[in-house]
Amino acid sequence: AENKPLAGRKMIVTAGPTHEPIDPVRYIANRSSGKQGYAIARALAKLGAAVTLVSGPTRLPEPEGVTSVQVESAKDMLAATEAALPADAAIFAAAVADWRVASAADQKIKKQDGDLPDLKLAENPDILATISQLSEGRPNLVVGFAAETQNVLENARLKLGRKKCDWIIANDVSPETGTFGGDDNRVHILNGEGNQTLPLMSKEDVATALAARIAEFFHGK
Ligand code: PMT
Question: Which cofactor is essential here (predicted)?
Answer without folding.
Answer: FMN; Mg(2+)
